[in-house]
Design goal:
900 residues, mainly alpha, Helix Hairpins, five-stranded antiparallel beta sheet, 5% strand, Surf_Exclu_SEC10/PgrA, signal, peptidoglycan-anchor, LPXTG_anchor
Amino acid sequence: MNRKNTILKSTLLATSVVTISAVTNVTVHADDMASKTQSQNTPEKQIAKKQDNNNQQLSALKQQQSNSENEVAKQNADKLTELQENNAEKIKILDQQLQNQKQVTQQTANDQLAAKTNTVRQSEQSQAVAENNAYQSQVDAQTKANDQAVANQQQANAQELANAAKHIVTPEQKQSQIDSATKNTQQALDQAKSDHDATVNKLNDQLTNDLKQNAQQEQAAKNDLKQPSQADSQKQLDNAQNAVNNAQSKANDAQNALTNAKNTLSANQNALTQAQDAQKEHVNNAIKLPAGYIDAWKEYVNTKEKDGWLLSQKRYPDLYNKLKSLDTQAYNNNFMNYHSDPAATKTPVILNDNGTLSRDDIIKATQFAVSLLNPIREAIGVEPYKITNASIDVAQDVANEYRKDNWNTWENSHDGEALSRVAEKWNTDLVGESWAGDGWFGGHGHAYSNLTLDDLYYGVYNSILMLLFQDANQNYGHATDLLGVRAANSDLTVAGDNLGVSFEYGKGMKAWGQTNVGGFHFNSISDASSKNIQRLVKEGYIVDAADPNSKVNQPGYRDEIAIPGQDSQKRIAELQAKINQAQNQVDQLTKTANAANQTLTAAKAKLADLQKNTTDAKNSYQQQLAAINTKYSDQATKLKANHDAKIKAENDAYQAKVSQLNSDLQTKINAIKAQPENTDQLKTQLDQKLAQVKQDGQHKLDQLKQDHEARLQKIQQDAEDTLAAYKANLDKNAQAKIAKAQADHDASVKALNDNYTQLKSQLDAQQAKLVNDDQAQYNALATKLDSELTTLKNQVLPKPADHQTAQNKQVVAGNANTVALDTTGKTTVVLPNEEKKSVVMAANDKRAEAETMTNLVQMTKNNKNGTLPQTGNSNSAAIIALGALTSMFGLGLVTKKKEW
């Protein structure tokens, strides 16, 4: 409602500004009208006359400059137009020259090609004539030779016919000749078969003997080869392997010891770094307690009932009332006393996707919480909180389990099953928890974005105030948890030794009319070294937290995390001592590990040498054996190959001889059968011979013609190839000349265009300089005239002592009309003083209106910043506070049976 009123006020005020401006305009007009009744030589008229004179001088100068600039611009345009026209004419000439050069180049190439074609065709014709003449000579010679061969055959045939009686054989004579030839051939075949078989047998016997001798030589070579002793080699290898195994075991032991020592050193170094960083970054925030607060809790510790952990009004009425009164003082003293950490405001806090803190932010939240709580615990006489890796991880697990269950703590109290699951996971008796609904970390609107570490600290701070000082209605269940007083007079494991502070919220989760509700979890676990746990163990109780096999007690998890401001120097010194001790151990174990590794390396080297020697011996034996096998196998293969080659050669020779004998026999039989038995058969045979002679002669003539035509074709093709190559070369040269001409043409055109561009740039620069010079001249005159006008005003207007001042405005007193100057010397307008009041508005400066609006906006912003964001009606803050109080619940305790 306040904001709406502010906006309305801003609107009305802005409207009033506009209204005044309107009135001012009307008033100026009224002044002008009224001024006509004044003296003709008033200061106002002198100033107005001077102003008019100034304006006339400036106007005249501006007109003169404009005329000059326009004239120069016209001259420049004429120059450019003339140059452009000249360039166009020159380019036209260049284009025609280029076209002419292209035509001349092409015509020259055509003429050269025509001349070359004439020469080539003449050569082609000469070669063709020579070829035709040579061909005709060959034909004539071959025809003559053919005629002579025919004549010779005719003469031979005539002679054969004349001696016909000598060539005629009877059928009986033919058969006798055939039988004789057949018998002779068979005898030759039989002899050839006998010789062939003898040769084959001899070759086979030779192969058998050679293979036998080769096998004997192979066995002798293998007998001479010494095989290594398998038993001796294996024994040496076994001994060497045992030595390696022993050395490896010792080296592993040494390395494991070294690794553990390094891990310990690293953990101590990390802890030291954290402690040093925490000491550097620590900003002091402390809870101020009223007098009597610590004594009240000491009284509770001393009078606490057995195994009790609440402080109710019914059980402790006086103490309850005392603490409730002290709570009010404590809460009021600390509620607005949080000290912001400048470094933390620059450190972003980004929640995980499920609405939980990162592990690093959990550590920082826990460190901050412990720095607030431990001074109170120590003052009461309770062991201070520790922070361990386990307590941090437990807190993170609790937040994650709440989110897995989608648990609404605002409405359902603690998620007991989630806490039990985490306790079981970490093998501890229980996980203690105090929870505070958030209204600070994410603000009343629960907007968990753009958060910083300072926001997180602020949320933790206010949560602790609520849990400690607004806990009476919860019978102080949260206060007894955080202050560590539950362990007094108790045989129960009550956690409360090691703390982890986490946060989680449900995205979209609603409660009490709010969305995205969540809160801070103060989760604690027992420490095996705490006095309470040690006492319970000593008294015979079974305590999981004291079991060395529990997850919380494993190396790494039980390592402590530094607490800023709590014995930091002592802690740093202790950690440095641990680091020195761990470093010495690492150095010693490094030497031991190096020695073990050297022994291992030597044993491995010896084993490797033995293995190599054994393998080399085996390989050498196998290689030599393989070489022997290969050698004699190759020899046997070669013997067989030689034998097979000889057998094949013998078979081929035998078959060739048989074929030749049979062929010769058939030739003889054919010749015998072809012998004429009468004169007619003889004549027919002779005619066939003559026909064959004629056919052979014609074939030779045909071949001559074929060769002749091929040579003519080659002459023609050579001519075509020559012309094609010549034409290609001409075209290439012509294109090169045309390309050069085109390049020259383009360069000339570019030069003309560049000349135009350069001239235009020069003229434009001159024009711009002229305009700038004119403007400078105009400005100088304007400055001079303004100075003269100012001097005149100072001369004719009254002195400042005669002025009235209103809101930094200087007003000249007058009868009906006045002229005013502001503190900057600018003229202002003053309304007629009809009711003895002057309303001053700037005529030439709108800054007054802008400043008014700026002030209104700033006023609205300041009002907004001064009011906390509201959710719902004016009672929302009370509801949120009530929610934060009533949503804090204590966790019940688990009792272990006592061993008797």
